[in-house]
């Protein structure tokens, strides 16, 4: 018999934070470096296997551009779960996430499971030492270019704009699950959807 239960899940968040990319990672285990903005919303499904049951996620991946904001209630209506995404390199995207959480807590199903996801974690993680183009036994004197505390920092690294502790404290206070993710490397993505699934009540 098919024991899978359908769970309607909606993704919300500012444009370009990586909602579609997180879903693509979860559903197809792929990443597209130049993913185009979503128009309206996209619908995808994916099974999620827990120890004692299987859920079938019905995922509404909404468009973050402001002109689509008024469509959102159609997608979060009756949703059992929501993932509100921000970008760890963009502080304003956490403010936008907070406003989505407020809207969900006022207007969505009162039992909705909400997760906050800080995406693009790969951009703020130190690259491996070999990737930054320097070598330990190079020709240059040790003190020529080094800045205290920056040893090993790669040039391409983007500064983090949202400290983990800040977002985590907000999530705890608002009663949300909290994750940091990278759609690019896949870090945290399966955990995000699996931990949400564990919180969905068995009917
Ligand atoms: P809208 O559909 O306009 O709301 O955007 P979105 O939130 O769906 O963002 P999307 O997934 O389209 O990603 C926007 C851009 O960020 C794309 O170029 C992605 O390749 C890139 N991106 C998404 N996630 C990540 C990530 O985890 N790491 C890095 N480095 N880039 C990412
Ligand atoms: Mg999108």
From TrEMBL:
Residue stretches of biased makeup (Low complexity): 144-155
GO molecular function, one term: GTP binding
Region called Disordered, residue ranges: 125-162
Record keywords: Nucleotide-binding
Name under which the protein is recorded: GTP-binding protein ypt5
Lineage: Eukaryota, Fungi, Dikarya, Basidiomycota, Agaricomycotina
Residues of the full protein shown: 9 to 211 of 252
């Amino acid at each position: 018999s098919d024991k899978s239960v359908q769970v309607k899940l909606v993704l919300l968040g500012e444009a370009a934070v990586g909602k579609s990319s997180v879903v693509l990672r979860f559903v197809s285990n792929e990443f597209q470096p130049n993913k185009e903005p979503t128009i309206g919303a996209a619908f995808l499904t994916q099974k999620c296997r827990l120890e004692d049951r299987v859920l079938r996620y019905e995922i509404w991946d909404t468009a973050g551009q402001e002109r689509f904001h008024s469509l959102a209630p159609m997608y979060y209506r009756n949703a059992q779960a929501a993932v509100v995404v921000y970008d760890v390199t963009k502080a304003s995207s956490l403010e936008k996430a907070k406003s989505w959480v407020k809207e969900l807590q006022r207007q969505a199903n009162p039992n909705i499971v909400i997760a906050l996801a800080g995406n693009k974690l790969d951009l703020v993680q130190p690259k491996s030492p070999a990737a930054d183009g320097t070598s330990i036994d190079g020709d240059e004197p040790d003190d020529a270019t080094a800045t205290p505390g920056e040893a090993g920092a790669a040039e391409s690294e983007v500064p983090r704009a949202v400290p983990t502790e800040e977002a985590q404290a907000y999530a705890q206070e608002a009663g949300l699950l909290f994750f940091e993710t990278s759609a690019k490397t896949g870090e945290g993505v399966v955990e995000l959807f699996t931990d949400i699934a564990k919180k969905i009540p068995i009917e």
